[in-house]
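name: query_chain
kind: protein
chains: 1
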Amino acid sequence: MSERRPRVLIGKPGLDGHDRGAKVTARALRDAGMEVIYTGLRQTPEMVVEAALQEDVDAIGLSILSGAHMPLMARIMELMAENEMADVPVFVGGIVPDEDVPRLQAMGVTAVFGPGTSLDDVIASFRQAIAARHASD
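structure:
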């Protein structure tokens, strides 16, 4: 019996309407053998966390281009802790100033991917974080 394919949620929290990067990333993760749940545009933090909880995901990838990454991620990480999901790796992609990366990581974000990040690097990061999460089970 083969093991379950990793389940990944890709979301677009906030009011940003640009989803090409999220869709390209979702496709790359799917092509790499992961099951991808794409939430679509303009999701609230509550909607993102509820979808991740309902879908029992192994990791979350969020695309934020609006500049609202700090308040959105603070709320998402708070909701994840409230729902006992602090062990679920969370990745952020988009336009994030370098000085905000350590603050996001301090909140619990696993990694931040900026424009031009190789999809191979994104896939490898997801695989590594998911494997590490399941190794501690």
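note: The longest strand covers residues 59-64.
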